[in-house]
Amino acid sequence: MSITDTRPQPADAIVAAPFFLRGELFEGQDVTHRSRDLGVTFATPRIAMDRAVHPRTEVPPLLNVPLNEIIDFLVETGERIRDPRNSFVQDCIDRMAGTHVLPRAVLEGQVKGAAAYLDKRLLETVVEQNFPDPRALDEWVPKQDFTGRKSYVRAFAPRLIHVLPGNSPGVAVKSIAQGALVKAVNLFKMSSSDPFTTVAVLRTMADIDPDHPIVRSMSAVYWRGGDDAVEQVLYRPQYFDKIVAWGGGDAINNVIKYLGPGFQLVSFDPKTSISMVGREAFASEEALGVATELAAADVMVLNQEACVASRFVFVEADQADADRFSERLHARIVEKAAASGDARPLDADLREQIDVLTMLDDEFGVWGRTDGHGLVIRSDEPVDFHPINKTANVVRVDSLDEAMKYVNVATQTVGFYPFGRMSDYRDRLASGGAQRIVRLGEAGPSTIGNPHDAMYPLHRFVHWMAHEDGTLTGRDGSDGSDG
Predict the structure, then answer these.
(1) Within 13 A of 252's CA, how many CA atoms are on the CB side?
(2) The pTM is what?
(3) d(CA 449, CA 468)
(4) Domains in the chain: how many in total?
(5) Rounded CA gap, 290 and 314, in Å?
(6) What is the CATH number of the domain that holds 302?
(7) Which is more confident, 32 or 183?
């Protein structure tokens, strides 16, 4: 969470973060804040509340724009984001490099790589997987039940507030695309780590066509999470239907207090991903090398900032083999960290907890240091802190069955090795609350259109509306066929 700072700052010390409200750029340094992770000062204009809210008396701008035209515009936006001449994106990366914990090269790769989501086949697949009949996004689809009663159903354009995460700037691109696909009116609350990417994408769209309905459907602002002066105004059902919230426990709990009839939550709440490695990894030196390389790939997704990045690696082994695995895993993590240029040291609290573990030689093994170059801790039970910043906890178990007691509703992705045993565990993992099982090493990529956090998000975003037309011809003699 950022901290509002009212002290005067040197002009050259302040990073400016403009807002974008329904097609209009707002610049200014009326309010200063500090970024959550680095404590860097940045300044924003004041929020123009009348521009942040789209009146319910007006239908959403995208409502009657055909879905294929929306997809075409998103595809063109993706091409513009990847264009090295795009000054909005370059300026965004320059500014974000000062507020975000990740190295500039990683951030640049994230923003440019996220544009791959704006692909025609990908977007069409996402829609098809989320909606049994995608026509409902464009029109009132006729229905008739077995009694003969007729109706029309539409996936009506919702009014959404998106509370964006700070760990992955690529989520901004994906969220804008999803908001457009469901034809929503969208207000994006940017994070203090990245109050730039969303505006850069929207400015790119406005540069293509400043009057496009997508542009007029999108707003992006920043305020400190928990600021009642803003949230008590905006978090109301007369203005918005749902909050689409990403973030940690504090962010989600803050949103929950505003929920009520007509104002719902779609939550991508805090998740922890794990790995499960069977005894087959120790059948040969080659197998051990493969398993540790795949495990390191999952640990280091977005340098362990992503929810899909593995934190705990459950290894079916005796202590000697678990130590061999840990040593090799550490070497692979160090290599990947060095290649990314990321050498952030662990924060003080985490360093202190790990330093204590190093003195308990009989219970824990520790490879590496807390200097940000990579660290592996071996234990017989999961450590009681959240491994982050290139830190993996290898948990030795006699059988992977023992690992099942640590799976719960906060377990998102499970990377599994060997691949042939995945089907033996998928039902039990689902019963425990896990949401995704993949081959070890494939935590990062996802099958296009698959559920995310155990749901089809776009299907939940929309406002499902039914127009029921009875079973008989109306009194005016019409049959309702005009919809």
Answers:
(1) 11
(2) 0.86
(3) 31
(4) 2
(5) 16
(6) 3.40.309.10
(7) 183
